[in-house]
Design brief:
420 residues; Rossmann fold; Helicase, Ruva Protein, domain 3; 5-stranded parallel beta sheet; 20 helices; 13% strand
Length: 420
């Protein structure tokens, strides 16, 4: 049975929590302060720790830090008074799984414990070196929609397969066009209970009024989007575009309704940096970023380009012949491998689909590729750039861009002031 270590200096709290937790299938143990809790954790290795934030001589935050030093994957849930929200957010920053504000409801407590246990089981699986297949529903959907064989791609697929078995919030990070929406759809359809709806919301397009109605509703406990996502997935795209006031209100919704749906968010920006700069709500970041997935740009997985070209070609159409029989010559593939691909998978898909649709033969050579791709085929690779040929690489890019520093800097992804 899963175990919970309850840490509180009030014995009455021990008795109350024991009475409500044990009937749900958890075993309980107790400690009256942080020092005793740390010793008991080291001896018993419980699955979860439920600790009060206000204790002496070692408070809950200090206990959390000590537990994380001893066991980085320790799952700690902090209990705090309503007035101590700032300290609770600090606990999330130091690695707490979640926090509960006193007085909390029994169903809220049990739901949080179950999510904590699910997260614990996931982290244990992630550390395992076993090659046994994952218990993933609709695994064929994962293998059929994710194409490639590079090391970074294989690592991504392993991570997605593991994530499909849990309901913990997932943050998908990556440049535009790297396939974040596809991953979200796969996680939804491959989840243990995929029958619920996938409610997709683009934070860059919806107004604050729409968000308030869709997320909060009239009572503030969940609007139309939240109700539609119950039993399924709430998918928030471009989370960095959500205005700060709505970010704060989203936290409130998640605290009361998150156990009813799977939350998946995407971002093309560094949310941790935005949080440090005060441009993103700190608690929202710690709530959505517990399981981050970084999608590599296409330029970092060029070995996958031939397989991706074949996949995109087979999903295109041509009025003269079966598009699935189209072949790209090696010189054409060399051009595609050497291009920078700022639009990533989306750009490659557009290029391949357009070429295949207008091709008069089943063989595609480099001369049939767009000029903007062919001009770049002799540039040094990213590996050369990282190996120390930075100046040569930058000079070539600048020359190819007609000495336009602004354009060259955009291609390189650097500040124009750094160019000669």
């Amino acid at each position: 049975m899963p175990s919970v270590l309850i840490v509180d200096d009030l014995l009455s709290i021990h008795e109350m929590l024991d009475a409500v937790i044990q009937p749900t299938g958890f075993t309980t143990s107790f400690a009256t302060d942080g020092e005793k809790a740390l010793a008991r954790y080291k001896a018993q290795k419980p699955d979860l720790v439920l600790a009060d934030i206000d204790m002496k001589p070692m408070d809950g935050i200090t206990l959390l830090k000590q537990l994380k030093l001893f066991e980085p994957n320790a799952v700690v849930i902090i209990m705090t008074a309503y007035a101590s929200t700032e300290s609770a957010i600090q606990a999330l920053k130091y690695g707490a799984f979640d926090y509960l504000q006193k007085p909390f409801r029994v169903d809220e407590l049990i739901a949080t414990l179950k999510r904590g246990l699910e997260y614990k089981q996931f982290t244990n699986e992630r550390q395992s070196q076993s090659s046994a297949p994952f218990p993933v529903a609709k695994s064929a959907d994962i293998d059929g929609r994710l194409v490639g064989s590079s090391a970074k791609f294989k690592k991504l697929v392993q991570q997605i397969k593991k994530l499909s078995t849990v309901k913990t919030p997932v943050l998908l990070q990556g440049e535009p066009g790297t396939g974040k929406s596809t991953i979200a759809e796969i996680l939804h359809s491959a989840s243990p209970s995929p029958d619920g709806s996938l409610v997709k919301i683009d934070c860059s397009l919806s107004s604050e009024a729409n968000f308030r109605e869709g997320l909060l509703g009239q009572s503030g406990s969940g609007g139309t989007w939240v109700k539609q996502a119950k039993g399924g997935t709430l998918f928030l795209q471009h989370l960095q575009c959500l205005p700060l006031p709505m970010q704060k209100e989203l936290v409130s919704v998640l605290r009361t309704t998150s156990q009813g749906f799977r939350l998946i968010c995407t971002t093309s920006e560094d949310l941790e940096k935005l949080t440090d700069e005060g441009q993103f709500h700190d608690e929202l970041f710690y709530r959505v970023a517990s399981l981050p997935v970084v999608l590599p740009p296409l330029r970092d997985r060029v070995d996958d380009i031939p397989a991706l070209v074949k996949y995109f070609a087979s999903h295109s159409s041509n009025p003269l012949f079966d598009a699935g029989t189209v072949e790209f010559t090696e010189d054409a593939l060399d051009v595609l491998r050497s291009y920078h691909w700022p639009g990533n998978l989306n750009e490659l898909n557009q290029v391949v689909s357009k070429i295949v649709a207008t091709a008069e033969s089943r063989v595609i050579t480099s001369q049939q590729l767009p000029m903007r791709l062919r001009e770049m085929k002799d540039w040094p690779t990213l590996a050369d750039y990282l190996a120390g040929q930075q100046k040569q690489y930058c000079d070539l890019v600048l020359h190819a861009c007609g000495d336009d520093k602004t354009k060259a800097a955009k291609v390189l992804g650097i500040d124009a002031a750094k160019l000669r």
